[in-house]
Amino acid sequence: MNYPPLKPPYRVMIVDDHKFVVELLAQRLSVESKVEVVGMANRGSSALHIAESEKVDIVLLDMELHQEDGIHVARGLLQIDPKIRIIGLSMHDADHHPISLLELGGLGFISKSATGREIIDGVNRVAAGDMAISPKIAVYLATQCSNQNPIGQIRSLSPKELGVLKFIAQGYSINEIAKKLDVGGKTVSGHRAQLRKKLQVATDVELCLLAIKSGLIGIHQDL
Q1: Cα separation of 42 and 195, whole Å?
Q2: The dihedral of CA 53, 51, 29, 64: what is its sign?
Q3: Are residues 153 and 115 in the same domain?
Q4: Are residues 130 and 168 located together in one domain of the fold?
Q5: Cα distance between residue 193 and residue 171, in whole Å
Q6: One domain, residues 25 and 104
Q7: pLDDT tens profile 95-108
Q8: pTM for the whole thing?
């Protein structure tokens, strides 16, 4: 699925089984004029009810809800609205949740140790149609996928396409990549479209996973 940029304000729901965490995240997001918190839930069932009754663009979803699996809740949210953009949250950088959520259709995974600014940046990235993955989690994904090397799938890429793929996998937005490569945003978008066509994928999430599995993103790299 393609994720076009959202128009602000971005309607965000926060889901965490600790009430103070929900309130803290809501307080952090309240300083961002582009964000409107439209729902706060402490249980998966409550989150699903909100998603059914409110228009929700982005969900900050704790992966370790009390007696509930965050992946199961994410699946339910996407069944209600496949366009919902889910960002997973976890205190643990190394478990099965990041890969499971990204493969399910999530657009991000952020450590709960991230700063308020990093969380806001993540929401803005996902709203723009890009990915948001904390550096430590990106390193973990690389180590987990290091034994899977679909290098043949990226051999047909040009140096410019490889460069764009690398930046996408590192979580940079189209505009940020354009600045780094000193080209226009349309040029970067064109390369991304070509990457998806050549690699037979539909989303940046799939591009990211393929880059990690192929070893394009090294585990000792400064992500």
Answers
A1: 39
A2: positive
A3: no
A4: no
A5: 17
A6: yes
A7: 668 878 888 889 99
A8: 0.69
